[in-house]
Write a structure and sequence with these properties.
The protein has 811 residues and is an alpha/beta fold.
């Protein structure tokens, strides 16, 4: 077969359909480019635990299947991840990943020896997804492996031999690092298959492996895709097992109350946190589990679940249901069995009671608690964090710059601003003795703060260190805070945002698809009058050599002809009729306004203003102008198949009920930090607001708040009800809505200089400008305009709204 070619558009389509996070789409893009040659190359993607490798796997399968690949083998390191993978591709299962264009036939060692599967193996129109664990490939003496390699009557050969014979096999190795210990046997098994490409997915690549794509734990934490790790220690230094377990159980109850309060305030289904305890060995796990069932901890039946290599099927089923609302499990006690492949979102507290021997094991255990309970950060610290009862290996991993902070810095790092005060951090260990109390408030960062662009980035964004008392107090604050809703400030308006959403409708054309610039450019060709001339010929009698007189004609000087002149008012009407009578649009008021705008902009390009009433055009100029405008509309109409259909579905903001009041609120005059909420605004519709960047969003908020030309402003968040749908189906969440004193609504986006020209950023900008033009043509929602402001524009505006408009030059 002809091997696949890289298709960037297909990757974008899959990213939209599966609603992929940016790093996951980036990983698929990197793999798709790397395997284009189909030469058997092995590539590895290194992504932090909790970011969503499941979605990368689903996206890769859909990409390959859409490209015509019919044989895809997913290799898992054991039954836990194998069962999870099967669930991801089983429609109707709670962990099924929807959005794929092609549903593959899933084949395992349990179902391949069936006639239906045998027929499918020889059918080039069926996409086959083989899901095996590594033992089923590399142990020929093992019973299940013999089944894979043994002759099968429906296949006509062994299944392993069949895979060797297909010419489009792609192998995807989940948790790729696990195979390092079995590298020789695994590599031999893969090499003998002759796969066209081998793709490894891991959070901890094996030594010597150079990934083609990397997304670090630091980046995942900083970007808000996972929980923030919080190391919790005791100021009195007590670290005996009994105290650690008691503290963990108490902290879990506090966390549970905060999670429940948040869910109730939002009308969400509650997610209950569990405690994850890692022990040294099976006997140790049994002893600890027995201790945790004491009356002062979790004595109820089924509340403590022990998972080891000896666990029963009943225990494994209870583990699989630990996220369900009716699950009684409050504590999971394990040894090594759950260090990877156990993907749950409700681990709230982790305790390590064994010496975690390696960084890989430590990060894998930590990774069990990184997934967000509601799929996003919600702004409540106790919901957005996972608490780790202090243990040296955790502290070493999370305080390591290479593991966390350094990887999130741009190339070349960032210089420390020595003029900014910042707390110190112990390099290793926690303070003890007489100096502990004095240094307690200094445990805020894992390293000194650094400047990236104009933003302060420090360890507090990646890791927090708190005493047990502080952690419990934060839980109480969060429980109370979520009960207080941050309603809009007194006197602030409710804004009806004209959200424009894609609909499954027959493709229609609208004059609103023609932008002002296109109409003006077409009209510019008619800025000068067209002269009509009369050709003149004069007789030129001449005598030939034979004396004969002949008459010849020659061109004489031409003269201007008279022509009919058309008043501007009549011209406007003629141009309008020319495009309106094309039959391209539905007859409604919005299209009338849009057609009038197109005519107005066309004439503006020709130098005719709205105030011109006495001006006249010659008939030739007017006729050709009408023809040109008609062709412009016709070309836009012929391109309509590229335009999706939309309808307006307005939403009122702020939402009712409003979000809860966060607990980490400071004055707007405090130094900028991404993890804080700012209050004391004069013109903000909501009492508090948070920001992602100092040099754009934070500075813009101060500009709005201090301008006499701004009535109100509203900060917008991702996710939220205010978004603009892009042509690829993705949602764009702009930064602000501003209402000025003239009654115009402005959608405002601030963007760092180094990202302003990114293709995706520019595509969002175009989508927003199109949206604003459609809203203005529709007119029922008032006047809406869009501002795109870079760091340079914001800085040069000098806190002036009028200056910002002049520099940003909105359409």
């Amino acid at each position: 077969m002809t091997w696949i070619s890289y298709d960037a558009g297909l990757v974008d389509d899959i990213a939209a359909r599966l609603d992929l996070r940016t790093p996951n789409a980036g990983a698929i893009r990197a793999v798709a480019e790397a395997i284009e040659d189909g030469d058997g190359r092995e590539v590895v993607c290194d992504l932090a635990t909790g970011v969503g490798k499941t979605y990368i796997l689903a996206g890769l399968v859909d990409y390959l299947a859409t490209q015509g690949i019919r044989n895809i083998l997913v290799v898992t390191p054991g039954t836990t991840i194998q069962d999870k993978t099967l669930a991801n591709f089983t429609p109707g299962h709670p962990k099924y990943v929807p959005g794929g264009e092609i549903e593959p036939l899933v084949i395992t060692t349990e179902n391949f020896a069936r006639g239906q599967v045998g027929d499918a193996l020889h059918n080039d129109t069926v996409t086959k997804l083989f899901v095996f664990n590594v033992q089923q490939l590399i142990r020929p003496s093992d019973k299940t492996s013999r089944r894979v390699r043994a002759q099968d009557e429906f296949i006509g050969t062994g299944l392993y031999q069949h895979l060797q014979q297909v010419d489009d096999l792609v192998v995807i190795a989940d948790e790729h690092h696990v195979y390092n210990a079995k590298a020789k046997a695994f590599n031999n098994a893969i090499e003998e298959l002759g796969a066209r490409a081998v793709v490894g997915l891991t959070a901890t690549p094996a030594p010597g492996v150079e990934p083609i794509f990397q997304y670090s734990l630091a980046e995942a934490i900083a970007d808000g895709y996972v929980k923030i790790p919080v190391i919790v220690y005791r100021p009195d230094g007590r670290k005996d097992e009994q105290t650690v377990l008691a503290d963990a159980c108490h902290l879990l109850r506090i966390k549970d109350a905060a999670w429940t309060a948040w869910a109730e305030s939002q009308g969400e289904a509650p997610v209950r946190p569990v405690l994850f305890v890692v022990c040294r060995d099976i006997s140790d796990a049994d002893r600890v589990a027995n201790r945790l069932t004491a009356d002062d901890m979790f004595p109820g039946e089924g509340q403590v679940l022990t998972i080891t290599s000896q666990s029963s099927d009943v225990a494994l089923r209870a583990l699989a249901a630990v996220e369900e609302p009716d699950s009684p499990v409050r504590v999971v006690v394990s040894v090594n069995k759950l260090k990877e492949g156990w993907d749950v979102k409700n681990i709230g507290v982790i305790v390590g009671l064994r010496a975690l021997a390696s960084e890989t094991l430590t990060e894998q255990v930590l990774g069990r608690g990184l997934r967000l309970p509601y799929g996003r950060r919600v702004g409540t610290p106790m919901v957005d964090s996972v608490d780790l009862i202090a243990h040296e290996s955790y502290r070493q991993l999370l305080a390591n710059k290479e593991a966390l902070l350094q990887k999130v810095l741009p190339a070349g790092g960032g210089e420390i601003d020595e003029n900014r005060p910042h707390p110190g951090v112990p390099a290793a260990g926690l303070p003890d003795g007489e100096g502990r109390q004095a240094q307690q408030e200094m445990l805020n960062f894992t390293s000194s703060p650094r400047i990236i662009g104009d933003d302060l980035v420090d360890g507090s964004l990646l890791l927090q260190v708190e005493s047990m008392d502080d952690a419990l107090a934060q839980g109480e604050r969060d429980k109370k805070a979520v009960a207080t809703l941050r309603a809009k400030v007194p006197g602030a308006p409710t804004i009806r945002f004209p959200r424009r959403e894609r609909e499954i409708l027959p493709v229609k054309f609208s004059f609103s698809y023609i932008d002002n610039a296109s109409a003006r450019a077409e009209g510019a060709a008619y800025a000068q009058e067209f002269k009509v001339t009369l050709a003149r010929l004069e007789a030129d009698p001449q005598r030939g050599l034979d004396g004969t007189l002949g008459v010849h004609w020659k061109a004489a000087e031409s003269v201007d002809a008279t022509q009919k002149h058309i008043p501007i008012t009549e011209l406007r009407s003629d141009l309008f009729d020319r495009i309106w009578n094309s039959g391209y649009v539905d007859e409604n008021l919005a299209e009338v306004r849009a057609a009038e705008r197109v005519v107005r902009e066309f004439l503006a390009g020709a130098g005719v203003t709205a105030e011109d009433q006495d001006h006249q055009w010659g008939e030739l100029r007017a006729t050709q102008a009408a023809t040109a405008l008609g062709k412009l509309v016709e070309a836009a109409y012929n391109n309509r198949k590229l335009q999706p259909s939309y309808a307006f579905h307005p939403v009122d903001v702020p939402t009712v009920p409003p979000p809860p009041m966060p607990s980490n609120v400071v004055s707007k005059w405090e130094t900028f930090r991404k993890d804080l909420w700012y209050a004391d605004w004069e013109h903000s519709i909501e009492p508090v607001a948070s920001f992602d960047a100092r040099s754009t969003e934070y500075t813009l908020a101060h500009l709005f708040d201090g301008s006499p030309s701004v009535q109100w402003w509203l900060r917008n968040y991702d996710p939220g009800p205010i978004w603009i749908e892009r042509d690829n189906g993705k949602k764009y969440y702009p930064d602000f809505i501003v209402l000025d004193t003239e009654g115009t609504y402005w959608v405002v986006e601030g963007k760092a200089n180094d990202r302003a020209n990114d293709p995706e950023v520019q595509e969002k900008k175009r989508a927003a400008e199109d949206w604003a033009r459609f809203v203005r043509d529709f007119e029922e929602f008032g006047t809406w305009r869009y501002i795109f402001a870079t760091e340079t524009i914001i800085k040069n505006a000098q806190n002036s709204w009028e200056s910002l408009l002049a520099l940003a030059k909105p359409e």
